[in-house]
Amino acid sequence: MATCRGAGQIVRKFSTSAVKNKQVQLPLRLYGLEGRYATALYTAATKENKLDQVESEIKAFQGLVSKDANLAAFLKDPSLQRQSKVSAMTAVVKSLKYSNITSNFFEVLSDNGRLPMSDSVIAAFNKIMAAHRGEVTCTVTVAAPLDAAGQKELSSALNGFLQQGQSLHLTVEVDPDIMGGMTVNFGEKFIDMSTASKIKKYTAVLKESA
Predict the structure, then answer these.
(1) For residue 159, how far is the Cα from the chain centroid?
(2) Under the phi-then-psi rule, with left for phi > 0, alpha for psi from -120 to 50, and beta for the rest, what region is 139?
(3) What is the DSSP string of 21-61?
(4) String of b and e for 165-181 (b: at least 16 CB within 10 Å)?
């Protein structure tokens, strides 16, 4: 049974002896457990020259989960024994006739008891693939919806930070709790310009000086 000593084992398991030492340049570095699994999947697929195929299979699996409530519940159910999940997931992936990389990826997730986080791992993989294509993912959170002029101004400002060959993939979310200003997740960077954050900082300063 596979252990969960870092998702780098996924690369070792997926890669053949002919390509296992091939160096892969990551387009985006992600952290956390989901980031490690997603990075390992990208690395293994790149080494085997199957990146497009793996991405297609991952997207197909996402579509399947969105339409099959039973499969979605199975992935999230923490009460099922791990070995039962491994056997069931192996059967599911085999029936879908995925590549060895995608099949082994889901096998490792189930073997390590990480199927409940498959959504976040796949989301992380999609971010890496977007960066691979030169897309810079940016999520801006504001306290109130922006009008058309505001969205255009924001998009124009963010495009000024792109490098040649990159394109902006912008998502604007609304969260009244930030009170004003905005937070920006731009590629690997996070900028907090929210009113709530400023108030928190000012409150901390006042407490220290009291």
Answers:
(1) 22
(2) beta
(3) T-----SS---HHHHHHHHHHHHHHHHTT-HHHHHHHHHHH
(4) eeeeeeebeeeeebeee
Task: Please give the radius of gyration of the chain, using alpha carbons only, rounded to the nearest integer.
Answer: 21
Question: What CA–CA distance (Å, rounded) separates 20 from 11?
Answer: 8
Residue 193 per-residue DSSP state? -
**β pairing state of 182-186 and 189-192:** antiparallel
pTM: 0.70
- pLDDT tens for residues 177-190? 999 999 999 877 89
Alpha helices in 133-194 (DSSP H): 148-159
Rounded CA separation 142/104 (Å) = 40
The structure tokens listed for 16 are 């053949």
Q: Which residue has the tokens 């009008």?
A: 147
93: how many CB neighbours lie within 10 A of its CB?
A: 20
Share of the chain above pLDDT 70, in %: 89
Strand ordering across the sheet containing 167-174: 167-174, 135-142, 182-186, 189-192
